[in-house]
């Protein structure tokens, strides 16, 4: 009787192993088997739910237009990676910090992004705990250790080479560092140009760390026009109805440096493809030509308190605006689902002005 039970258990284990191997084979046959997501709240899907932080979005009205409700996405609906995944035919990967993100759940990638995080370790510390970019790379290493138990080295190498890493970071190095001189010394220690170079150099090291671990396709987003977000407008230092040009000029130094870095990386690593996503250009186009995209509110948030609904970001149980599809900004810091969709579509399909040197659809074919 005992032998029969043991045989049945062995058969079940073997069946489970075969199913897992079939799943791995299927994943590796896909053009883009997985997405690995690094960055901040623009691409987070719930890591901060598991951290000791006030930078969270796991409460209503976040997710008011999302099937899963308030998941930790800093949006009224889907995130950038949800849309990119849909367009490329890859399921949006689960948050790293979720204990259930293991086994077959990681076969389409993992999302490491964390609200309030930045390129620099200190950025966003005013919100509490977060996965900094350096910590996210360490977390990716622990995921690799899981993959090594599931695939042989050749299969893992192929899997990583065909997958795409999405990197969206740098925003909090301004919003929650350089632009808060009362809490951070960075604006005293660096000119805007020096600070942009500091960020690009640090991000370059982080990108090379991912490359050294086997990633060969990296989509790296620049920073949008931060001087136009409701929170910066709410400071009231710009003329009424205008963006804060000084802040936009600051992030311009970072974006120029980042594009140059991407060009250099492509020259240095012909076995790989690095893409610069011109976030500033795309969101700037939306803000300058809102009617073209069916938007009619560009200067205030849908959910938030105070001037431009941007002085205090979206609060629990707050009633948001009803015209969410026509509003560019969801809360004090983040675009609405509708604006995110425009950026995602142009990231996947856009010309070189949007994504350089290729878009995500072209990257997937390489």
From TrEMBL:
It is found in: Secreted. GO terms for molecular function: hydrolase activity, acting on ester bonds. GO terms for biological process: lipid catabolic process. Its main location: secreted. Gene3D superfamilies: SGNH hydrolase. Pfam families: Lipase_GDSL. The keyword Signal applies. Keywords: Hydrolase, Lipid degradation, Lipid metabolism, Secreted, Signal. InterPro entries: GDSL, GDSL_esterase/lipase, SGNH_hydro_sf, SGNH_plant_lipase-like. The keyword Lipid metabolism applies. One of its GO terms (cellular component) is extracellular region. Residues 1-29 form the signal peptide. PANTHER family: GDSL ESTERASE_LIPASE, GDSL-LIKE LIPASE/ACYLHYDROLASE-RELATED. Belongs to the 'GDSL' lipolytic enzyme family. This is SGNH hydrolase-type esterase domain-containing protein. The lineage of its organism: Eukaryota, Viridiplantae, Streptophyta, Embryophyta, Tracheophyta.
């Amino acid at each position: 009787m005992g032998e029969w039970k043991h045989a049945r258990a062995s058969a079940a284990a073997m069946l489970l192993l075969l199913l897992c191997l079939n799943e791995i084979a299927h994943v590796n046959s896909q053009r883009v088997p997985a997405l690995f997501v690094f960055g901040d709240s623009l691409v987070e899907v719930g890591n901060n739910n598991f951290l000791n932080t006030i930078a969270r979005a796991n409460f209503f009205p976040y997710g008011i237009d999302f099937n899963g409700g308030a998941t930790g996405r800093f949006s009224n609906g889907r995130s950038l990676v949800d849309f990119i995944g849909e367009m490329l035919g890859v399921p949006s990967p689960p948050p790293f910090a979720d204990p259930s993100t293991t086994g077959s759940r990681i076969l389409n990638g993992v999302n490491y992004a964390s609200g309030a995080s930045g390129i620099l370790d200190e950025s966003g510390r005013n919100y509490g705990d977060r996965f900094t970019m350096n910590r996210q790379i360490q977390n990716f290493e622990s995921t690799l250790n899981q993959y090594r138990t599931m695939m042989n080295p050749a299969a893992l190498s192929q899997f990583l080479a065909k997958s795409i890493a999405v990197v969206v970071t740098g925003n909090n190095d301004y919003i929650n560092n350089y632009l808060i001189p009362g809490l951070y010394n960075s604006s005293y220690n660096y000119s805007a140009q020096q600070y942009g170079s500091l960020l690009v150099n640090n991000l370059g090291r982080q990108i090379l760390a991912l490359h050294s671990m086997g990633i060969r396709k990296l989509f790296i987003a620049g920073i949008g026009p931060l001087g136009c977000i409701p929170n910066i407008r709410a400071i009231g230092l710009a003329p009424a109805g205008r963006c804060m040009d000084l802040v936009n000029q600051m992030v311009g130094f970072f974006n120029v440096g980042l594009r140059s870095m991407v060009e250099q990386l492509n020259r240095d690593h012909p076995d790989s493809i690095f893409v610069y996503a011109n976030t500033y250009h795309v969101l700037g186009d939306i803000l300058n030509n809102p009617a073209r995209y069916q938007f009619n509110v560009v200067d205030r948030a849908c959910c938030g308190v105070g001037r431009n609904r941007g002085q205090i970001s979206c609060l629990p149980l707050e009633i948001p605006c009803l015209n969410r599809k026509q509003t560019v900004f969801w809360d004090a810091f983040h675009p609405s689902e509708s604006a995110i969709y425009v950026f995602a579509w142009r990231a996947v399909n856009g010309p070189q002005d949007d994504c350089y040197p290729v878009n995500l659809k072209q990257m997937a074919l390489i």
